[in-house]
Structures are given as C-alpha cells and as structure tokens.
Specification:
Elements (H helix, E strand, L loop, with lengths): L5 H4 L14 H21 L7 E6 L4 H8 L1 H6 L5 E6 L3 H9 L5 E4 L3 H7 L4 E7 L6 E5 L15 E4 L4 H12 L8 E4 L2 H9 L5 E5 L2 H8 L3 E5 L10 E5 H6 L1 H20 L1 H12 L3 H9 L5 E3 L2 H16 L19
Parallel strand pairs: 1-2, 6-7, 6-8
Antiparallel strand pairs: 3-10, 4-10, 4-11, 5-8, 5-9
Amino acid sequence: MKKVSALLISGFSISLLLAGCQQNTTKSANAATTNEAQTNDIKSGDSKPLEEVRIGLQSSGALVYLRESKLLEKSLEKSGIKVNWVQFQSGPPMLEALNTNNIDFGTTGDTPPIFAQAAGSNLVYVAYEKPSPQSEAVIVPANSTLKSVAELKGKSVAVTKGSSANYTLLKALERDKLSFADIDVKYLQPSDARAAFESGKLDAWTVWEPYLSSAKIELKARVLTDATGLKPNNTSFYLASTDFAQKHPDVVKDIVKAIDEADKAITADPVTFSKMIQKVTNLKPDVALASVKSRNYGVNYITDDIIQAQQQEADTFYKNKLLPKQIQVKDIVWYPPK
C-alpha cells in the first residue's frame, strides 16, 4: 500500500507571536488597553469589513445550485459581500485550500475532514446534508466476472485517497472479512480512475456522484455494493476555516440559510437542477438526472449523533492504521451563535 500523502500524515504547526513586556510603570495600562481591544474584536468579529467570501465546491450538491442560481450573491449583496466560487475535483484538496486560507467555506464527504483534522488543519464542521447511501458504490466493468466484494482479494481497486469513498471501500471490505492489505489499492483522482477503469486497467472502482451515474449509464458498470448499511454518515459536510467562522458567524449562517433554500428547490424540481449539473459537467441529460436523484437533500447544523458517527469513522481509520493519530471530532465543531 502506498504511504499516506503529506496532507493525511503531516501536522500543521501553529506559530505564536509573543509580545514583549514594557516597563512596570506602563504594564498595567497596556494590559487594560489590550483587553479592551480584544473585547471589541470579539464583539465585532473582525475590524475590517468582509468584502468577499471564497467558496469551494465540487460537481454536485447544493453549492452548484447556489452558484448557478446566484441565490447566495443576492443574499449577501445587501452587506456588500461578493462570492468567489472555486471548483475542486474532490474533498481532500479543497480542505487543504481551507487550511491554507485560499478558500473560506466548502463541502466534502464524510472522510476528508477526518484526515484534515489529524493533519492539524485549520477548519471546523458547520453543517451536514441528509445521508445518501446510494450516491457511493464499489463498481466493476460490465464484462467483469466478479459478483461480490469478497472476490476483490488480490484485485486492483481504485479509490481517491482520503475521500468519502475511501471509507465506503474500507467498510465494504471489512464486512466481507477483507482489509486494504488484501487488495491492490490504486489511489487515483476520479478523472484518472475513470480513464483507467474504462481502459480495463482496473478490476474495480469505488466512487461517488456524479462519476458513479456516469460509469453506470455510459459504461454499463455494475454495482457490487453501495454504501447502504455500511456507514451511518454517508453525507456531505459543510466546513469553514476556523478563522472565518469565528470572525464572520453571521455570514456562515447566511450561507447555511441559502443552502437550505437550495435544497428545498432541488427537492421540489430535480429536473431543473439536473440541467444545471449538465451545464457545468457536460454530462448527458440522463446521467445528470440520475446523479441528482441519487442524493437526499436537507441541511442541518451538526448534532451529537453526527459527531458520534464521525468519531466512529475516525476510530476505524486509526484502528486500520490509515490515520496517523487519534482525534476527537467534537473538538472542531462550530455552533451558530444564538
């Protein structure tokens, strides 16, 4: 098995700048001034007005609807805030961008935040979508003789490292008494995995929407198993950089409110949303619609049950020596101010 990438195993150190003390005659006055300034910062969130929010998104989900409908721009324009959308192919590089302050807010599946937290990344959980277990699956080519996950022993299986599909594959193998050591894991981004899968260089591929529907419809790929019954948190998470969430809580709440409106619109009219997906991905109409219908839509702030399920996932990765250290998911959960 390949070594876990730098994002998954490296910690991010935090530098602290300590101010020197002045003479005793002025120390008390300086401390009082500093405390007053800190109090004002907490009240105002940030002394500089926010001019732009940078949001990372992938090729499916409510954020695509927000970008295409301009719903969020309309919500934030009253505050003079512009929206900059940044496209990503998968969750891990998006969370790296959050950590390095290249975006402020984004969405991934259940697994990327776990590895990001283990790496010490600067991010917090904000909200989550309803679980969609049929939106991820282990698939094989149309002409494959494989009928079950148990038959993957010794076979080449592609998955994106640190993605939600990574955990789906782990749990599918575990259910059939196998482990990552029993298969030939190929860590590939979806575009590279699709090319390898289509050319016959892979025995199986574990992937999510819209890549899943594309492979099923266009390549006639067969599903060995989806995520049903494998994991409780087969959901999308919304995350923000720690600094952004602390300084701009009202903006975070506005974003979640807009996501809720988008989810309701998608549920009411999946065909219109599928046309948006088709536009941004160049997928065929039937593929785009299938990918939209495979998901459940409905956003909520983080609950204790969700934290518990994420913690179980983190512990499973650690037990299988795929996570470099144990983490406590509850330590990076953001709650909206009341």
